[in-house]
Each structure stands twice: as structure tokens, then as C-alpha cells.
Structure to design on (204 residues):
């Protein structure tokens, strides 16, 4: 079994995919099912997913995504959406934790009260920033879990989000953040370098 360090080192952004290679919905759901263990602000889990695996729909999506080839040739594209009204999850999240035995009634009520006094009253911009941050965490987990299964990915922020929401009937509550192409590489990814750690690190 690969170590986490190996998975991180092997994951690269792949843009050339084998169009004949298919990943089952069951495997995609396994990846997403593990990915949603990602942390989130107050555990409100402000993410939703749309999986595109129909070839005709992917062709439409490609037009919205600046004609990026990998949208059509990958096995599937996972759209990660941010829930700007994550406060609607408050009761469900904490009551579920109580029912699972992870917190007692008093702590549940305290956390529900605290979250309800904060999130619903925050501006949409603040809630959007929180949701975007959290969807970044779950997106990275998706890509690492895919690599652990020997699949390849590339995150794409370059797409028309307004057209996406309109074409795929995304409720106003949700905002598309990133598209993640998922499949098997048909050509090696370009190698990249990193700015040395000593230039981006300081201690205080």
C-alpha cells in the first residue's frame, strides 16, 4: 500500500486522458465518501457535488469550461459546489453527532445555539469565503484519494460559473468552485518545480 507521502509526490495535474478508460460510479462514490471526511468550519460541511459522466453532457460542459479537452476525455468530471447557506445544516449536523454518541445533549444544544448566533447573521461574502475555503479542503482530498487508487486528476477553475449554474440548474444557494477531471492519464503530466521552502517559511 502506498504511503501518503508517495501519493502526494505522485499526484500531478494531468490534462491528457485515455477517453476509453471508464471509472464506475461506485468507485467515484467511494472516493467522494472518503473525501467528505475533510474538516470544515463548525463541521457544517458546505459542499455539494455534481458528477458528469455522460459523454454528451461532458461535451456541453467542455464549451462552458473554455474548451478544455480533459473535460470531454476524462472518465468523469466532479464539480465541487460551495454552500453559501451552510447554516441550514446546523441542526442536522449536531443532532446527528448527538445520536451517534459523539456529544451529549448539553454540548449539542450549546453548539447549535453558538452556530445559530453566528452563521445566519454573517454577510454572504463572509459565508462564501468560508465555504470556498472548506471546498478547497475537500477538493484536495478528492484528488489524493483518486491518486491512491492510481487515477489521475486536474482541478479547473477556468470555467464560466454563471453559465454553469444556469445550464445545470444550480440553486442560488450554491456556487460552483472547481471542476475536477478524473480518469487515467494518456500522457505524462508536465513536471513542475516549487519555490524552495526556505523562501516561503518563517518562524516567530
Amino acid at each position: 500500500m502506498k504511503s501518503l507521502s508517495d501519493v502526494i509526490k505522485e499526484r500531478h495535474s494531468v490534462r491528457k486522458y485515455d477517453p476509453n478508460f471508464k471509472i464506475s460510479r461506485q468507485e467515484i462514490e467511494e472516493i467522494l465518501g472518503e473525501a467528505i471526511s475533510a474538516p470544515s468550519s463548525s463541521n457544517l460541511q458546505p459542499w455539494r457535488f455534481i458528477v458528469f459522466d455522460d459523454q454528451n453532457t461532458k461535451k456541453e460542459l467542455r464549451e462552458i469550461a473554455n474548451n478544455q479537452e480533459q473535460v470531454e476525455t476524462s472518465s468523469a468530471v466532479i464539480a465541487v459546489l460551495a454552500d453559501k447557506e451552510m447554516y441550514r445544516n446546523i441542526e442536522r449536523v449536531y443532532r446527528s453527532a448527538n445520536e451517534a454518541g459523539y456529544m451529549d445533549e448539553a454540548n449539542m444544544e450549546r453548539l447549535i445555539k453558538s452556530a445559530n448566533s453566528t452563521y445566519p447573521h454573517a454577510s454572504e461574502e463572509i459565508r462564501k469565503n468560508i465555504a470556498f475555503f472548506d471546498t478547497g479542503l475537500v477538493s484536495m482530498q478528492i484528488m489524493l484519494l483518486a491518486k491512491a487508487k492510481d487515477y489521475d486528476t486536474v482541478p479547473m477553475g477556468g470555467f464560466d460559473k454563471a453559465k454553469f449554474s444556469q445550464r445545470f440548474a444550480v440553486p442560488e444557494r450554491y456556487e460552483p468552485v472547481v471542476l475536477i477531471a478524473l480518469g487515467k492519464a494518456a500522457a505524462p503530466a508536465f513536471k513542475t518545480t516549487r519555490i524552495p521552502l526556505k523562501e516561503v517559511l518563517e518562524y516567530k
The domain at 4-200 is CATH 3.40.109.10 (NADH Oxidase). Residues 37 and 138 are 8 Å apart (CA to CA). The chain has one domain: 4-200.
